[in-house]
Amino acid sequence: MTRRKQIYEGKAKVLFEGPEPGTLVQYFKDDATAFNNQKKGTITGKGVLNNRISEYLMLRLAEIGVPTHFVRRLNMREQLVKQVQIIPVEVVIRNVIAGSLAKRFGLEEGGALPRSIVEYYYKKDELGDPMVSEEHITAFGWASTQDLDDIMQLSLRVNDFLTGLFLGIGIRLIDFKLEFGRLYEGDEMRIVLADEISPDNCRLWDLKTNEKLDKDRFRRDLGKVEEAYQEVARRLGLLNEGASNDVRTPQVVK
User: If DSSP codes are grouped into helix, strand and coil, which group holds residue 45?
Assistant: First the structure.
């Protein structure tokens, strides 16, 4: 088997050179991190679940016309994606008060927001991913005004669609993080959704009980991290597909 060239390794994924020009292989790791890499651990099987969940959500978004970097899932832990130039800005869409928003303004978690709030963060681990404004983004050349218009439009579409999708399976989409990239095809460039969508970068609460079904269980030492990820996959109908060992029950390894 030919050894593939590694292009990049992040906290949750590894990117390898793809089989065709303009493609990459995205490998989902079991590593879990929180608080800008200050807390580290391993959730055995998390990569398998996130691969399946992200595949499903990317395909559903493509059905409503949201352009993404996703091509197809290759196996339990890998998917083929289009190579894009990642914009170094994380987009956070907040529907309910939680996490850093509650902490910053001294608000109680779970409170309703008058409308969804979109925030931008500079993607730089060593700086703690600081919050930035549109002025920072355009002044430093990370994205143009047109790029930001496209990103905002896509982010709100994704939020509307995923909010409804998750409500349909008894889950509240509290907030989530998106990343975007520039896809070059010939002389044309367009902004597409990149990275992943999974319980790693979404806050997901049970609609009836407010039980957390996401990485907050790892961040806050709530336990049952593996059950939470598995429950999201189960409600999406992903645990019933394929062979019984296609998605293993993950376990937290300290």
Answer: coil
**Phi/psi of residue 142, nearest 5 degrees:** -75, -30
Contact between 206 and 171 (Cβ < 8 Å)? yes
- Tokens encoding 152: 């905002």
What's the pLDDT at 241?
47
Interval 46-71 mean pLDDT: 97
Residue 196, classified by CB atoms within 10 Å of its CB into exposed (0-12), middle (13-18) or buried (19+), is: buried
Mean pLDDT across the chain: 92
Q: H or E element: which one contains 120?
A: strand 112-122
Helix H or strand E segment including 105: helix 99-105
8 A C-beta contact, residue 172 and residue 204: yes
Q: Which H/E stretch holds residue 147?
A: helix 145-167
* 232 closest CA partner among 245, 217, 219: 217
The answer, yes or no, to whether residue 112 has pLDDT greater than 70, is yes
**173-185: per-residue pLDDT in tens?**
999 999 999 999 9
* Domains assigned to the chain: 6-84+223-253 (3.30.200.20), 86-206 (3.30.470.20)
DSSP state of 248: P
Closest to 176 in 3D by CA, of 111, 94, 234, 61:
94
